[in-house]
Amino acid sequence: MPHRIVALFLSLFACAWLGTAQAAEQGPGSKLNDHAALAGLHEAKGLFLIDINDPNRVAHVLKVVGMTRKGLSEQGVKPHLIVVFVGPAVAFLTKDRRGIGYMQERAVSQVQHEIDGLAHEGVPVEACGIAMKGMDVSPKDLIPAVKPVGNGFISVIAYQAKGYSLVPVY
């Protein structure tokens, strides 16, 4: 019985010591990183499938896509990212913003601003033609940074076959 108590004490001490060491490594002055996950990678391919009907959430997700691209780059991994819109979210991609309510105007503007920033960084953005038809959006209505495609799901399937990892955002 005393051996078990000593073993338990030593185990708890070791856990506490390791936790303290990790906290010191990632303390207030240190920056979190993804070195373990990225070990051995020189390139990473990510495919963000966006199917959200809330422009505030879409703007946030697009901002995180940009942060993901930047984070990969800063950690020495060349990012290859693509964004594909399906569903009603394609309505947020139009020049005239027809059908967008007054309360959503600012968020849709932010969505389009984030898309322009991603395009500037070389991240392609696609809009599903099936969803566009369902939302009565013509390819000519899309903002310039968005490329219309026939079927967003076909794009997703094809990019995955080319080695892109799917990041579904619903």
From TrEMBL:
Keyword annotations of the record: Signal
Signal sequence range: 1-23
Pfam families: DsrE (PF02635)
Keyword Signal in record: yes
SUPFAM superfamilies: DsrEFH-like
InterPro entries: DsrEFH-like, Sulphur_relay_DsrE/F-like
Name used for this protein in its record: Uncharacterized protein
